[in-house]
């Protein structure tokens, strides 16, 4: 019986949990099904920094031959790959290898054009950045995507969902069910399920009026509603709405709404090349100074200071960001 060769190309500091879940799912499959044979290999894309957690496997030595499937795994968007590694990946794809990205592993695939015209599951915190950088890729908020010969998972526990889907397609749903039972997985999730947890779970409350009000806020970031308008939409008085927010979220509606808009602004600031003024306007602030003042009061730094600090610490900078003055 010929083993199906699966490789994992790893960047430094990738989450050990994500890698362990993938490895365990495949090992369990071999244990519970005698006809399953996987040969796993782990390849380090870059040498780890001194003192960093040591990833399994060997350093890449110039070849990626003989693999049936290869998964790229990174915890943060990595810097562009060396030419030799890029060439090796493209050669592997031309040879018929099914290739996939897990968590930020979709970035190097997109850089090489290997996801152009394909669906790719992108973690929600990188959605804006990834979509701006790679408009030819169909970025989704799914748990995972299997589009022809391209696989992707948003990260975390979704890698297990992807591997269970792989087992089901390769060996049948019965094996995938047996593996999930062995791993005490409550249910096998479909790839098309969305990443974000239900709003009432995030809020820690199932109060229907609170849920309705927050959904309204999230849907009206660029042109914020007043507290009176929100109360009218959810059919309560302003005073009653304020009591609900105070009881469940320990803040008044206007404060929660402002924090929601500021967090959205910070996400856009870190993940897109939009100007600070554009971001402020798109998050409901009437002017640059108003946005900067509110941002500094909440985060302790101006938008420009926060963006510059983030860029100086990131190997994957926003190369297309405009020069901003003032």
From TrEMBL:
CDD domains: GATase1_AraC_ArgR_like. PROSITE patterns: HTH_ARAC_FAMILY_1, HTH_ARAC_FAMILY_2. Keywords: DNA-binding, Transcription, Transcription regulation. SMART domains: HTH_ARAC (SM00342). The keyword Transcription applies. PANTHER family: ARAC-FAMILY TRANSCRIPTIONAL REGULATOR, HTH-TYPE TRANSCRIPTIONAL ACTIVATOR RHAS. This is GlxA family transcriptional regulator. The keyword DNA-binding applies. Residues 211-309 form the HTH araC/xylS-type domain. It comes from Pseudomonas aestuarii. Residues 302-326 are annotated as: Disordered.
